[in-house]
Design goal:
heterodimer, A: 359 residues, alpha/beta, Rossmann fold, 3 domains, five-stranded antiparallel beta sheet, 16% strand, globular, B: mainly alpha, 0% strand
Chain lengths: 359, 106
Amino acid sequence: MTGTGYLIPVSESRSVRNTVRYAVEQATDRAAETGESVTLRFVYPLSKRLSFDEGTGEAEHARSLLDRVEAWADEDLGADTESAVEVYTSLVGTREYLFSPSDYADVLAEYARTHGIDVVVFDPDFDPLGTTALLPPIENELRRGDFEVEKAAVARARRGTLLVRRGTVAQFLGLATISTLFYLLLAGSLAPFELATGTISGLVVATALWGISLTTPIQPAQMAGRVGRLLLYIPYLVWEVVVANLKIAYVVLHPDLPIDPEVVEFDAAVWSALPVTTLANSITLTPGTVTVDVTRRHFTVHALTKDSKAGLLGGSLERAVRFVFYGRSAARIPSPIERRDTETQSDGETEETEEAVDR
Amino acid sequence: MTPREIAILVMTLGGVFFAVVAVVGLIRLPDLYTRAHSTSKSETLGALLALGAVALAFDGTMTTVKTVLLLLFMFITNPTAAHAIVRAAAEQGIEPWTTDEEGDEA
């Protein structure tokens, strides 16, 4: 593809309409200047993996937004400009869960590279999750990846309205309620004094942690499902911990100390922060394996014995964590060994496991 | 002895056993990483069993609830602490001990 390309990530925001107008103006100017064709690619980063999204609410919403964007862009281009400017729209990030700014940046950068784009134009109110400010870190990541990043020059919505945004009040109340209930649980009584102090403490906690805790909107049905499956997961985890602890006790008390420590690295098929944390903690709890480092989904794990390493790469824990957070369909993703996502480090130099060598 | 007392006794003994395993591991294992295994896990299970025995001993009072909460927090924070230590070591560039260099190790 020749000419210049602009990548414009969009999400539902007040300034999205003006961002489209700005991008179209830029593109038209550029086309007039250089005489080359210019492509505008509007993308919507989906936060959820498409195939698991049972409701597809987000995807439908995204498609309708992209349709509107396309219509707006056509409107701005006008009939007379016999198109040096081409407009495309697309959903990105449909194959994984996006959570952190770097997840978004990766997806956008990959898309931009495939389509030979080097300029990314951001809507200043681009806010894919709806509650946290992801934009500055995404911009930084993209700049580091050698992309030219600009902000659309549009009139911005007043910042002051941020605190009373839709949904956030519910989160505040939710946080206050949870804190108060926990306070009452610890107090162990419902005396008026405890109720009063509990409510005050709950409000204080909610005020202080408003922007940090419960940042994604609460979806009661999803929450209930997760908590229910978590209750199934905990006994399983405790059982694993006990069995593995007995094995470790055997190893430690054995006169010959039959250990074979090794550092294993693998990419886990879990996506957002909470599942990754749960998996990392579960790995650490299961004796024989300690999570050394996690960079997004890349796990570095220290395994004490051959057995524990095999158990880890067998992926049963990983599968269980996916079951808790994403439901039964996600549990069927193959284990790290089957995916061939692993490598073993020994003696400081990296050598691939036998499975990987067969490739 | 009632079944409850037996349960308390068994859990306490289990707790002591795993705590001892943790200490033995701490002394016998060769390096920081392997020691982290023994201190984080055997230790967690030992503490969990001991706290579980405490919860049973208080028999359904508020103290039981609080002990269970304590147990839950240990379950979450212990592995996190172990992970923090191990990661700090990895970032300092400490090489993990492997069976290949047995000769050099004491």
